[in-house]
Write a structure and sequence with these properties.
The structure holds 2 protein chains of 2 kinds.
Chain A (H helix, E strand, L loop, with lengths): L7 E4 L5 H11 L3 E6 L16 E2 L2 E2 H7 L3 E4 L5 H12 L3 E4 L5 H5 L3 H7 L4 E6 L14 H7 L20 H24 L3 E6 H8 L1 H9 L22 E4 L4 E4 L4 H8 L10 H6 L1 H12 L4 H8 L6 E3 L3 H5 L2 H4 L4 E5 L5 E5 L4 E2 L2 E2 L13 H7 L4 H6 L1
Parallel strand pairs in A: 1-2, 1-6, 2-5, 6-7, 7-8
Antiparallel strand pairs in A: 3-4, 9-10, 10-11, 12-13, 14-15
Helix pairs in contact in A: 1-7, 7-8
Chain B lengths: L10 E4 L5 H11 L3 E6 L16 E2 L2 E2 H7 L3 E4 L5 H13 L2 E4 L5 H5 L3 H7 L4 E6 L14 H7 L20 H24 L3 E6 H8 L1 H9 L22 E4 L4 E4 L4 H8 L10 H6 L1 H12 L4 H8 L6 E3 L3 H6 L1 H4 L4 E5 L5 E5 L4 E2 L2 E2 L13 H14 L2
Parallel strand pairs in B: 1-2, 1-6, 2-5, 6-7, 7-8
Antiparallel strand pairs in B: 3-4, 9-10, 10-11, 12-13, 14-15
Helix pairs in contact in B: 1-7, 7-8
The chains are: A alpha/beta, B alpha/beta.
């Protein structure tokens, strides 16, 4: 039995952070129903990467919204709102990422919803919380990265601020959202009361930096200082980083320089006495090591370093990685088939439960695709409603 | 009314070290669980000695303090009979047991899932590995930078003319920890309904693949085209212009998705008006970005923001932490808390990012000294044992 079986989640969320949380809950066994406006559906359907679509929706949408159902409703129509409230009565969780004030206007704010269903877990995602000068600023990933200091951690010393090349604020925030919702469900199991769960992209991307921000808060406020070349982490000593070899690159993690120098036969490294100097003279050390590593191929270095238990790795691109036996062994892939028969190859949930991987072949829904089943399962049609 | 933290009364026995596992148990602690770290005598969690930028705080590394606040420390030598018996007592009473040893190690130590289930049938048991328990990478060290390097992640950040660029945070560890916390809590939800515990397994490699799910799905869809970062101002290899960070006369400016001709109008940059076709914003992004980059040098960041923000273009300043922390938008979140250790040492750190019932989840408890709570826990457990609780 999947852990969240029989739980019903109503997802009013759009784009990435909220829907990625809905996807995780779905993969863990919940029945996730997207509430979408009739016709166009959620705005995330129109987002495309490399102009890739399937049946009118972006591949990105398909990726984030597989394993869900869709119920179309116009929240401004009293009739539809009535049905939605009936659905809410029977749901365990609802989530939204409307800007502050919108749900109040519609009449589905937490206080109202709690009156309908006191056991519901009501989740809200915002960009920057609901007060302060940024509360109405667009909650977009790159802007959050830029405001939060994150862009000064990657890339080299003389590079411009370097963003993480993925929607990291969205992803982390979605992960926190799942945690908060699950924690509230655990409490509900004991107390029989629901909860309001709130996360924001800004709080999440600060939490993501908790290690280095804690260092910053206690070292007298020194700003991060990236290595001159091959930076892997602004706060870690040499050799941590990426190096060019004769044919490719090589990554080296934390390592005792004495051991590394002796293993490689790079005796210059032995001149740096004491681990404090490995941070202080990081650029010099990395420069010398870099020149040395250029002399042989990555495979040659790995053959020397791996048997000596030195933390190192080749650096792969997607083609190399996704065809590697190490990746294949994970069985990370699955295929969903859309209503129109289009096969979309994607990844699965990364969590294994009771020794089993969690697969699902259910595709992302078309707008309103499951109206009939949902009206039947939840007794939403007027006749049933009046009779009960 | 004081909020009941959601995981109150949940006991977590945590054998994990470094970042991935301990970051998961920190989250559980902040959500209300009692977390007991089981550490080896002498050195304890190796993370205590993992100094970053040479900073030592009250005897341990700053990162250890960040990750292990709000926990207790129990010292035990898992190879000694006396200590093992004490740990068994703890494990019997635990709701959650977790570790991040390499595959096979916990079986040798004897506290693996099957063994623990014998004495505690309802346990929720979590484990983290580097690369899963099969395949050629099984015994490779599960270290953040190595997993980043193998997973294709280093081809996404930085400009096209650079080599691989790692993400400068232990992103793999943090995501893996987040996924473990999710799996553990999902099983605790199920336990509340059906009474059965469960086994939760995550690996660093599976977690970092999941992190890339959008672009890997794109890669499958586009027939496996190489990942190409834009030559300048790259912020996302799979997005077109203007998406990126640009230098201005005073600092930097971030611009997310926006219409190129609209930017041309707003910024008074006529060459951008040439790019009327949507497809060209991706296909000719290097060209567009270089025009935009040269143009944005002409004014300072505030001037550009004053033009773009009222027009609803997604843009922002690019801040360092000192500027961020002085900003009202940050201050209003109360993200920083001060915690205090058993010996009175105090330090500042961040708080849990989740709010429940409108309240922050705060805790004044700092990181434990190695073995700080061993004696008290033994006494408490023995009493519980004797009274049959």
């Amino acid at each position: 039995m999947k852990p969240l079986e029989n739980l019903v989640v109503l997802e009013f969320c759009q784009f990435m952070a909220g829907p990625s949380a809905g996807l995780r809950l779905a993969d863990l066994g919940a029945r996730v129903i997207k509430i979408e406006r009739p016709g166009k559906g959620e705005s995330g359907r129109q987002i495309s990467i490399k102009n890739l679509f399937s049946e009118g929706d972006g591949i990105v949408f398909h990726t984030i919204n597989r394993n869900k159902e869709s119920y179309a409703a116009d929240l401004k129509s009293p009739e539809d709102l009535k049905r939605i409230k009936k659905l809410i009565e029977q749901a365990d969780v609802m989530t939204h990422n409307f800007r502050p004030g919108v749900m109040e206007k519609i009449g589905l704010d937490y206080e109202t919803v709690k009156a309908i269903n006191p056991k519901i877990v009501y989740g809200v995602v915002t960009g920057y919380g609901n007060k302060g000068p940024w509360a109405s600023k667009p909650g977009q990933d790159l802007l959050l990265q830029s405001l939060s200091g994150l862009t000064y951690l990657s890339g080299d010393k003389n590079d411009a601020p370097t963003p993480f090349g993925l929607a990291v604020a969205d992803m982390i925030c979605g992960a926190h959202f799942v945690q908060g919702i699950l924690a509230a469900l655990i409490r509900r199991g004991k107390t029989k009361t629901g909860a309001l769960v709130e996360v924001s992209l800004l709080e999440s991307i600060i939490d993501f930096q908790f290690e280095v921000i804690t260092t910053y808060l206690n070292d007298g406020g020194k700003l991060p200082d990236r290595a001159l070349r091959g930076n892997g982490h602004a706060y870690l000593s040499a050799p941590y980083g990426v190096y060019k070899t004769k044919d490719r690159h090589l990554a080296l993690a934390m390592e005792d320089l004495d051991t590394l120098g002796a293993t490689l036969g790079c005796y210059e490294l032995l001149e740096y006495k004491g681990s404090d100097s490995w941070f202080v003279y990081r650029d010099d050390i990395m420069h010398k090591l870099g020149l040395f590593l250029k002399e042989r191929t990555t495979a040659e270095w790995l053959a020397i370093l791996e048997p000596a238990d030195i933390w190192c790795a080749d650096i792969l691109n997607y083609e190399e990685f996704l065809n590697h036996a190490g990746y294949k062994a994970l069985q990370m892939e699955q295929e969903t088939v859309t209503a129109g028969g289009d096969r979309i190859r994607t990844t699965r949930c990364p969590i294994r439960i009771d020794g089993k991987r969690l697969f699902s072949s259910k595709p992302a829904p078309r707008v309103g695709e499951h109206v009939k089943e949902i009206e039947r399962d939840f007794n939403l049609s007027a006749g049933y409603g009046n009779a009960s | 009314m004081l909020m009941i933290k959601p995981l109150e009364d949940i006991l977590v026995v945590d054998f994990s070290q470094f970042l991935s596992g301990p970051s998961a148990s920190l989250r559980l602690a902040d959500l209300g669980a009692r977390v007991i770290k089981v550490e080896k005598p002498g050195t304890g969690d190796i993370c205590r000695q993992l100094y970053v930028s040479n900073l030592i705080m009250n005897g341990d590394s700053s990162v250890f303090h960040a990750i292990n606040r709000n926990k207790e420390s129990f010292v035990a030598d898992l190879k000694k009979e006396v200590d093992r018996n004490e740990v068994w007592e703890l494990v019997k009473q635990a709701d959650v047991v977790m570790h991040n040893f390499r595959p096979g190690v916990m079986e040798r130590l004897g506290f693996d899932f099957e063994a623990v289930k014998q004495v505690n049938p309802g346990v929720v048991y979590g484990e983290i590995s580097g690369y899963g328990d099969e395949g050629p990478w099984r015994d490779k060290p599960g270290q953040d930078l190595l997993v980043q390097s193998l997973s294709g992640l280093t081809g996404l950040s930085g400009n096209g003319d650079k080599g691989p660029v790692p993400m400068g945070i232990a992103v793999v560890d943090i995501l893996t920890g987040a996924h473990l916390a999710q799996g553990l809590m999902a099983c605790l939800v199920r336990k509340g309904i059906s009474g059965t515990g469960g086994l939760v397994q995550v690996s660093m490699m599976e977690s970092i693949v999941d992190f890339q799910f959008e672009v890997i799905t794109t890669y499958f869809r586009d027939g496996g085209e190489p990942t190409v970062r834009s030559l300048k101002n790259n912020a996302h290899a799979y997005l077109g212009a203007p998406y990126g960070i640009y230098r201005t006369n005073s600092g930097y400016l971030a611009i997310a998705m926006a219409s190129i001709p609209q930017l041309g109008e707003l910024l008074d940059c006529p060459p951008l008006l040439e790019y009327q076709e949507l497809a060209s914003w991706f296909d000719k992004r290097d060209e567009i970005k270089s025009i935009l980059a040269a143009h944005l040098l002409k004014k300072n960041t505030d001037e550009w923001l004053a033009i773009l923000e009222p027009a609803d273009v997604w843009c922002s300043d690019v801040l360092t932490w000192d500027k961020l922390m002085k900003h009202e938008g940050f201050k209003v979140l109360d993200m920083i808390q001060e915690v205090s250790m058993g010996d009175g040492y105090r330090y500042r750190t961040t708080r849990c990012p989740i709010r429940i019932d409108g309240e922050y989840l705060l805790s004044k408890k700092g990181a434990p000294k190695l073995g700080e709570h061993t004696a008290a826990i033994i006494e408490e457990m023995l009493v519980k044992h004797a009274t049959g609780k």
